[in-house]
Amino acid sequence: MSRLPVRALTLVVILWVGAAAAKPDPACTSGCKADRTTCLSTASADFSAQKTACPGAGPTRKSCVRAARAAFKQAKKTCQQLRKTTCLPCCKTGGTGCSGLPTTTTSTTSTLTPSVAVAITSGDVTTTLGTTSDLALTLTSQSYAGGVTLSAEGLPASWVGTFDPPGTIDLAANGTAYPTLHVAVPSNGEATTATITVRATPTGPAGPPETATAGIIVQNEFVIVIAAGTGTGDHHFPLSTLLRPGTRLTWRNDDTTVPHIIHGNGFIPHQADGPGLGYSVVLPDPGQDTYYCHSHGTDTGVGAITVSQ
Q1: pLDDT at 247
Q2: Contact criterion met (CB below 8 Å) for 38 and 87
């Protein structure tokens, strides 16, 4: 049997000892792997929670989800890097308890710009003159706690918009509020189609104002309703109504208990259709007239119509 030279034998021993020293403790490396798994799992849960907290729809939600996804990607990278650059090298040098990995990740919420989103959830509205339409709103804050002021744009000159509640609305961080915009159209207002823009402006440090839009279509018609169950009692006709020339004036009969026939004393002709049916006239040039239910007499109510530009 041949013998290795002493110098070669010494080199083999050194290499063997070095290899033994470089081999990490299995328990240590297992701990690194387990902590990385925990880190990634926490980052994933944090990402899911932040997506849920993002506003319901629109550009603000998309921006929020993108920011949360970017933070999640960075969190995963951090979990991997700490294992490779901190935990495993520590194990290879014979260390124990080398983890150093975070068991929780930094919330992605901290990476998001505070902002407020607004949505009109009731959609577009079709109505007639002399009515009030309610637009249901949803306000959602993203990492913002403070006041929000609302304004309405695009209202024709004769229309009046009011918010309920009025004034500044206070939102909690990642909170939601449900105000309403009431849009009142007078009987002699503009019969037109308008796009209403609601603007939500944070009063504190946050992103720029957000907007939402909805359409309101007002038909050139004023409707007087004979309510169900009116019978021979008070018909509750409006005492005085101001309308523009060309407006369609309609009496809608919702009562099925007794017949009703409308009679006027001037430009409103006597209703020729059978009782129980609706009745409409298109108003002529400026003037005045009164009307009542011919079936039940003036004691049940008399209404006045003024047609004016």
Answers
A1: 97
A2: no
- The CB-side HSE value for 97 (13 A sphere, CA atoms) comes to 0
The model's pLDDT over 13-42, given as tens digits with 9 standing for 90+, comes to 444 444 444 577 787 878 888 888 888 888
User: Alpha-carbon distance 189 to 199, whole Å?
Assistant: 24
Please give the Cα distance from 241 to 227 (Å, whole number): 18
* Contact yes or no for 216/241 (Cβ under 8 A): no
Tell whether pTM > 0.70. no
* Count helices and strands in the chain by DSSP H and E runs: 4, 16
What are phi and psi for residue 81, nearest 5 degrees? -65, -40
CB 105 within 8 A of CB 43: yes
Rg (CA), the chain: 37
For residue 117, the surrounding DSSP H or E stretch is: strand 115-120
CATH of 227-307, one of 2.120.10.80, 3.30.428.10, 2.60.40.420, 3.40.50.150: 2.60.40.420
**Residue 234 corresponds to which tokens in the numbers above?**
């008070």
At 70-86, the pLDDT tens digits run 778 877 887 887 777 77
Give the relative orientation of helices 58-82 and 26-53 as an angle to the nearest 10 degrees.
170
Per-residue 3-state assignment (H helix, E strand, C coil) for 52-98:
HHCCCCHHHHHHHHHHHHHHHHHHHHHHHHHHHHHHHHHHHCCCCCC
Considering the segment(s) 115-219 as one domain, its CATH architecture is Sandwich (2.60)
